[in-house]
Amino acid sequence: MELTIHQQVLASAVVIGLVIGGVSSKTNFCTLGAVSDWVNMGDTARMRAWLLAIAVAILGVTLLDATGLAVIGVNTFPPYQTPNFAWLRYLVGGLMFGVGMTLASGCGNKTLVRIGNGNIKSLIVLVIASLCAYAMLWTDFYGVVFNPLVATTSIDLAMHGIRSQSVGDLLGASRTVAGSAIGLVIFIFVIAGKDFRQSKDAMIGGFTMGIAVTLGWWVTGGAWGNTWKEFADFADVRPLRVDTQSLTFVSPMGDLVHFLLNPWDVSLLNFGIMVMIGVVLGSFIVSAWSRQIRFELFANGKDLANHVLGAILMGVGGVLAMGCTIGQGVTGVSTLAIGSFLALLAMMVGAAATIKYMYWRIMRET
């Protein structure tokens, strides 16, 4: 039986997820771990791995754009380069997500990887974060609670003659020039770190994540993606989120709940959900192969409360910020959207502050 283009794209999403999940599990690629190592020990190896993923993704998107292999403009999901610069949304959502992922012991990608490793705590985090993301995406919750403030503080760059919030458009430079310059500067900074050069896992983890983000853009924004969108336009029931996109993990959590509430409607299965499934499976395969599956439960009531609060902040904050530490911190940044840089900075500040606070509490109690 020949697969439709929609089924082929979803299958490719699973494959990308499998690779991410397996490599992240094997190399311990973790954005929260990157901040924690840096704040607590001054070790920047995993931070540079994260930055390597960003550099590779920026250079990858720049190459796709320069060669015409993919078109990644304003009309993406999420709309990273939208001229509607909702600066408060990025800041507040980013801070919420940064605090949340620290309390919940990992970002969206790490949560899925830990589930594949057998972590029950992360499964609970996924359930709660997914329900919160669902409320933000599929109910009136965002419109009632957040939209009034976001709408009144947003800046419409189009009114100032700026077509998007990408660095290139803001500076009047071409995508190729801006992307090449920023990507190379970050890459040079990454390889300058001795601790990073001595860590094979950091190199592999960062490079793989950057390539995976680039592949996501190529699949959905290139020739294959164009055929996919044409298929969706003529489908009896248009599949959900047939848009140019790459890796992100919070909105797919909400979409997964939406699908589970309507399991007979397979049109609700989308690229993001399939990547999520792939990440869990990839992590499970590597963990089972290496016999490292470990079932972990909450240590006590305080541990449970921290993870529940963290999951709520991740689900709400991740949708508000329009992405997680991968969705905004790598995928969004690869488009050079200033909102993505702002959200990434807010996430790092939120995580670092929470790590410092938790360490202070521990020292105070001992």
Mind explaining what this structure looks like?
This protein has one domain (5-365). It is 71% helix and 1% strand. It starts with a helix and ends with a helix. Strands 1-2 form a two-stranded antiparallel sheet. It is an all-alpha fold and 366 residues long. Helix 1 (5-27) runs antiparallel to helix 12 (200-221), helix 4 packs antiparallel against helix 16 (301-320) and helix 14 crosses helix 16 (301-320).
Average pLDDT, to the nearest integer? 95
What oligomeric state is this? single chain
Major beta sheet summary? 2 strands, antiparallel
Note poorly predicted spans. none
**CA-atom Rg in angstroms:** 19 Å
Q: Strand order, biggest sheet?
A: 1-2
Overall 3D shape: globular
Strand content: under 5%
Binned, the helix content reads over 70%
Instruction: Give the class from helix and strand content and strand pairing.
Output: mainly alpha
- Count of individual beta strands: 2
Overall tally of structural domains? 1
What string, H for helix and E for strand, traces the elements in order?
HHHEHHHHHEHHHHHHHHHH
Number of helices: 18
Q: How far apart, in Å, are the first and last alpha carbons?
A: 64 Å
Offer a quick outline of the entry:
Helices cover about 70% and strands about 0% of the residues.
Topology at a glance:
Layout: H1 5-27, H2 31-41, H3 45-67, E1 84-85, H4 87-103, H5 108-116, H6 120-138, H7 141-145, H8 147-153, E2 155-156, H9 167-171, H10 175-191, H11 194-197, H12 200-221, H13 223-234, H14 250-261, H15 271-289, H16 301-320, H17 327-334, H18 338-365
Antiparallel strand pairs: 1-2
